[in-house]
Design goal:
By secondary structure, the protein is an alpha/beta fold. It is built from 4 helices and 4 strands; from the N terminus they run βαβααβαβ. The mean pLDDT is 93.
């Protein structure tokens, strides 16, 4: 039987940060998690910037991907993000493994 990698969703503040700053924070976490053997879902990569999308559109897409994961990794800045707090609440309710930076 194939040994399936655990899939982890990276969650943290995006809105309100300069795009490059947010990308760097998520990329750093992604590299670290991949080095530990995880398959990562990085919301900065799954949703390209779309000027027609609202916050809610990004959240719908992000939550879809979160629901396919085994765990969630919360960046240090997660509690100051409305979206990350939603992702945390969903992860907690569906009993995902939760890791903190």
């Amino acid at each position: 039987m194939e040994n399936k990698k655990k899939k982890v969703y990276i969650s943290g503040k995006i809105t309100g940060l300069p795009t490059e700053t947010a990308k760097n924070l998520f990329q750093k976490a992604e590299k670290m998690l991949q080095s530990m053997g995880y398959e990562t879902i990085n919301p900065m990569k799954i949703c390209p910037e779309n000027p027609l999308w609202k916050w809610e559109d990004y959240m719908r897409e992000d939550l879809y991907h979160l629901l396919m994961c085994d765990s969630i990794y919360m960046l240090n800045n997660w509690s100051s993000s409305k979206g990350a707090r939603v992702e945390y609440a969903v992860a907690k309710e569906i009993n995902l493994e939760i890791f903190f930076e």
